[in-house]
Amino acid sequence: MALIEKHLDLTAPKHQSSWRKIAIGTWRTAKDPSVYGMLELRCEKAMAYIDRISQQTGERVTITHFIGKAVAEAFRRHPEINSVLRFGKIYRRRHVTLFFQVATDQTGQDLSGIIVREAENKSLAQMTGEMNKRIAAVRDLSDKSYSQMKSLMSLIPGWLTGLVLDVAGFIQYSLNMWSPLLGTPKDPMGSVMITNIGSLGLDLGFAPLVAYSRVPLLVTVGAIKEKPVVEEGKLTVGTTVPLCVTFDHRLIDGVHASKLSRAMIKIFADPDTELSGVQDSLTNAVSITPKVAETSNPVPVPA
Fold it and tell me: What pTM value is reported for the model?
């Protein structure tokens, strides 16, 4: 027996996508302020609302779109949660920016994302049209913002990825400075990140905080299912969707989480009333061609 031998029998390292390199460079320690929670919501009225908007606009509206709009509305009602941490101080954002994680292929080998800015001022119809167009652009590689960032990351050696992310995060968020030389769009991860694992057939799951992004809240959408529920003291069958939430305890605590939960419950229980502040206008809805509607899947999926 040799004095020093290989500890593990391993193959040669495999090729890593840009997204995988970012993931490896991001999570280097178990130390983080993550808190996890789950909210299960009845969604019959939400699905009826979604169906009506789909029929009115011709867009394929999904539960992911609806949850994005609901989260934006909850943030609008509780703006103190829509914040970022800089040099030990909490700064409030002026607008709600949503980041949706999107698979760029059907095998899940690579991921990207789309941003909806000022989501609190947009109707569900407007958000859906905007998202569907951007998802199609991501998948046919015509979206230059994130493709440029991914191309840049592909040139960085794996061992250097963590340092590059730390420096970029410090410049963009701590110093609040941006330059096109950084190779990333402005505020690329937004106020909250949303990803749908229910589209993969997974009941529920929790996503980790992404330190570089400084996003304090991640929402993972689980599978919609029929299950036994108690309604007015009687057992019946209800349709539910689980929301698995990860939040940064430095910015969000139990009181904030409770406010968000109550807002989401109200919106799901009566979307017509609760989302009436921003009207779903047919004239403002962005239409898509039948070709895009057939080839693009507007449900973002995670790693």
Answer: 0.79
